[in-house]
Write a structure and sequence with these properties.
- Keywords: Carbohydrate metabolism, Glucose metabolism, NADP, Oxidoreductase.
- It is an enzyme of class 1 (oxidoreductase).
- Helices cover 36% and strands 19% of the residues.
- It is α/β, with parallel strands linked by helices.
- β4, α5 and β5 form a beta-alpha-beta unit.
- The protein is globular, with a radius of gyration of 24 Å.
- Bound molecules: 6-O-phosphono-beta-D-glucopyranose.
């Protein structure tokens, strides 16, 4: 279903995110017929160039990013015709009257801040001052949303000076992933899971986001962030919220976000002994973290594993183990929900009975499997084995249905539709920082060095011990 007509201004329109994600995403939506003909996309960036030159840049980006099967000359041409450009100075006056003139009345207006957070305030102020963004306009902001609680509060306050919370769309692209949205469908669209979804029946939950890439090329940013700020405070926290939250009364932005916020607020402070920080060393043909970050003495973590407690009625006593890292053995994002063993075994000891395990594979090989204990076929008495009830989306739904839109496609269309459900509310981001800050402050105070781990491994051995000491173990990566 096509969205309404819109004017979308992308500040940072020539930047990396615009080239890799935003514009290719918009093109794919256009090609699918979701973007109406009278929509307009205005790139805005510091350098002056003609709209023609910008279109040529975007054409190059589409060629580079999209495989040939995902584009065709005719629709690329038609898409490029929707593009315009304005050279603008975010901190001065240049270009603003020009932009003001380009905006049309009577269509949805959205402004995408795909720029460094230091410029958010300048952009907000100028959009307001030049009367470009009215009370209905939507503002989209990228992560990182702050560096800690104080800076996130400053950003929120700066935006709030000119815009209402209902106008602000804070992106966490994990929420745009189909498989992440599916977490809510699985939990709240089935009767099967929800009655068991609590400490009484769930032994523990594991959330893994492992990547094979290093931080090369982004070292300057990453070295000031580390895995805690780059991944845990946002993406892993959002996954944790979707697994742990109470059922909202409606699938409506505030109902969903209220419940997520309660989870974050119920998190206990992390005990120092419940965190393992790692940093990758050089591999056979990959540089070390310190080389990638160009900081020979860096204490920043590229891996983190931790045990968390959600202290509320539903989860007390059921730990959540989180881990994420760069340069790991395989690229895997998945959630494992390990149920408890049945309370009493009617079979003899040693039959092989174990606990059910639900694995939700977010990427790759998107799908889920549930291990179920059955009788091992054969005459040998009651021997039990675990078999997976395995559902791979591509198999269950067909390759085409499983060829899901990229997270950005979904999120940008939601901005135009005015649906904030998959965006973070200001208080949610602040609560996540309020929980993160003391953990980082404790490392800084101790000048703690991360443990070095081999590139292409599953992280430091201490991360395995974190679970072993509780009589549990991580699911294998890769
Ligand atoms: C980004 C982080 O937000 O998410 C990156 O800054 C990380 O460090 C990326 O690589 C992971 O996203 P995805 O979609 O590839 O899992």
């Amino acid at each position: 279903i096509p969205v309404e007509a819109f004017d979308l201004v992308i500040f940072g329109g020539t930047g990396d995110l615009a080239r890799r994600k935003i514009l290719p995403g918009l093109y794919r939506r256009f090609r699918d017929g979701q973007i109406p003909d009278d929509a307009r996309i205005v790139g805005a960036a510091r350098s002056d160039m003609s709209a023609e030159a910008y279109r040529a840049q975007v054409a190059d980006a589409l060629n580079e990013v999209l495989p040939a099967s995902k584009r065709d000359a005719e629709s690329v041409e038609a898409f490029l015709a929707r593009l315009d450009y304005v050279g603008i100075d975010a901190t001065g006056t240049h270009g603003w009257p020009d932009l003001s003139q380009k905006m049309r009345a009577g269509v949805v207006q959205a402004f995408y801040f795909s720029v460094a957070p230091a410029l958010f305030g300048d952009l907000a102020k100028r959009l307001h001052k030049h009367k470009i963004a009215g009370p209905e306009a939507r503002i989209v902001v990228e992560k990182p949303f702050g560096h800690d609680l104080a800076s996130a509060r400053d950003l929120n306050a700066m935006l709030a000076r000119h815009f209402d919370e209902q106008q602000i769309y804070r992106i966490d692209h994990y929420l745009g992933k189909e498989t992440v949205q599916n977490l809510m469908a699985v939990r709240f669209g089935n009767l099967l899971f929800e009655p068991l979804w609590r400490n009484q029946y769930i032994d523990h939950v594991q959330i893994t986001v492992a990547e094979t890439v290093g931080v090369g090329g982004r070292g300057a940013y990453y070295d000031k962030s580390g895995a805690m700020r780059d991944m845990v405070q946002n993406h892993l926290m959002q996954l944790l919220c979707l697994i742990a939250m109470e059922p909202p009364a409606k699938f409506d932005p505030d109902a969903v976000r209220d419940e997520k916020l309660k989870v974050i607020r119920a998190l206990d402070p992390v005990e120092p002994g419940d965190v393992v920080r790692g940093q990758y060393r050089a591999g056979a043909d990959t540089p070390s973290y310190r080389d990638d970050a160009e900081n020979p003495a860096s204490r920043t973590e590229s891996f983190i594993a931790m045990k968390l407690h959600v202290s509320n009625w539903r989860w007390n006593g059921t730990p959540f183990y989180l881990r994420t890292g760069k340069r790991m053995k395989a690229r895997v994002s998945e959630i494992v929900v390990r149920f408890k063993e049945p309370p009493h075994s009617i079979f003899e000891e040693d039959t092989g009975q174990s606990a059910n395990e639900l694995t939700i594979r977010l990427q790759p090989n998107e799908g889920m499997d549930l291990t179920v204990t059955i009788k091992e076929p054969g005459p040998g008495g009651m021997r039990l084995i675990d078999v997976p009830l395995d559902m791979t989306f591509a198999e269950a739904l067909g390759e085409e249905a499983a060829d899901v839109p990229d997270a950005y496609e979904r999120l940008i269309m939601d901005v135009i539709r005015g649906n904030q459900t998959l965006f973070m509310r200001g208080d949610e981001v602040e609560a996540a920082w309020a929980w993160t800050d003391p953990v980082i402050a404790a490392w800084d105070a101790r000048e703690e060095k991360p443990i070095s781990y081999e590139a292409g491994s599953t992280g430091p051995e201490e991360a395995l011990i974190l679970m072993h000491r509780d009589g549990r173990r991580w699911r294998e990566i890769g």
